[in-house]
Amino acid sequence: MSSHHALCFDAVSKSYGDVVAARSLSLTLAPGEIVTVIGPSGCGKSTMLRLIAGLERPDHGRIDIAGETVADARTWRQPEHRRVGLVFQDHALFPHLDVARNVAFGLDRMPRAERRERVAEVLAMVHLGHLAGRYPHELSGGEQQRVAQARALAPRPAVVLLDEPFSSLDENLRARVRTETLEVLRSTGTTALLVTHDQTEALSIGDRVLVMRDGAIEQAGTPSEVFECPVTRFVASFMGDADFLPAHVHDGRLDCEIGTLSTDPAWADLDRDVEVVLRPHEVALLVDPSAGSEVVAVEYHGAFVLHTVRLGSGRTLRSWQQHSVRHPVGTTVKVTVVPGVTPVLLEGENAISGPLPSAAAGTVGPSSG
Ligand code: ADP
Ligand code: MG
């Protein structure tokens, strides 16, 4: 029935007193799929992983792992009998065990010779074969992370759960460990759910991204879907920087303070207030002494320079400019949208998807920003 899924959540709920940490979550992961989970602190990311691992019991719903039900109203499979590997932020290695014994930990039901072989195999996979005899305190943060990963993968789990696995690593190390981790997950065809609070990480690692809010999945989609077609204002502002401008659709045009952003003959009969979502890479600046907008802040990021511009209305937009471009504070600029960009439109809290409904079809949302 669902045996072709590595993981299946069917309407899974979990509350702690008044706090709903999982709000009827439904989700399936295909074998080999890597899904990243992102959302504000306290939205239920770790709870989702703990439910899968069997560290929490759902109040309602069903969880299947590799086609087998591990939790529902009648079924409860203990954590050690679920085919799940766990990697935590703090690595959680056993300090009194050397690397090889840490990795062998979940293999106690394996014959000794086979176990030794498997430990050597996974240590080689994470390039740690030469450190098998070291203790955790003799390892760098990146090496500890790789041991934790080897330990999780050793029993050949159906799903690996990683909860902010790179958070304790410094910036330089993080990029490398992230790449190596991804290589190991891919080369072993491992299905993984990876929690992160880093938007770039969520977008660059995942085949799919789950954006969570308040115990629910607000949007599940490919990285480009959640970034380019956010379904709500929340997703738009959570997945990358976004500014919002009141706009108006009428006479076949989408108009806002910086001009006509697009035209569509299908909008001929419309008359609706909306908002446009503008990301800094979509906003273009042109020095123009007669224009009504002014650069109010310039932030140097190295490869790119973030310019903040105040429009005539007092609203501000941000614009990424190439490294070589500097418009000093006080420069008067004309603000437009980069050619080819079709901005996302919001009505109230939700994005408008597909053709705009006719004016008679619904109420007009608030347009203040
Ligand atoms: P996240 O990992 O997204 O930061 P969590 O899943 O840890 O969020 O927590 C979700 C919500 O559930 C939070 O409000 C948190 O305080 C609450 N919570 C988590 N675990 C417990 C617990 N064992 N007892 C009571 N409340 C909990
Ligand atoms: Mg957490």
Strand order of the largest sheet: 6-7-8-3-9-10
User: What is the number of independent domains?
Assistant: 2
Give the termini distance in whole angstroms.
47 Å
CATH architecture assignment name of the largest domain: 3-Layer(aba) Sandwich
**What would you give as the CATH superfamily of the largest domain?**
P-loop containing nucleotide triphosphate hydrolases
For this structure, the quaternary state is single chain
CATH class of the largest domain: Alpha Beta
Largest sheet composition: 6 strands, mixed
Q: What spatial form do the alpha-carbon principal axes imply?
A: globular
Record field, number of beta strands: 21
Explain the overall architecture.
This protein is an alpha+beta fold. It folds into two domains: 7-236, Rossmann fold, CATH 3.40.50.300; 242-363, Nucleic acid-binding proteins (OB fold (Dihydrolipoamide Acetyltransferase, E2P), Beta Barrel), CATH 2.40.50.140. The chain is built from eight helices and 21 strands. The strands form four sheets. The protein has a six-stranded mixed sheet, with helices on both faces. Strand 12 (253-256) and strand 13 form a beta hairpin. The radius of gyration is 25 Å and the shape is globular. Residues 16, 19, 21, 39, 41-47 line the site of adenosine-5'-diphosphate (ADP).
Structure characteristics:
single chain; alpha+beta; Rossmann fold; OB fold (Dihydrolipoamide Acetyltransferase, E2P); 2 domains; six-stranded mixed sheet; six-stranded antiparallel sheet; globular; disordered C terminus; binds magnesium ion
Summarize it:
The protein has 369 residues and is an alpha+beta fold.
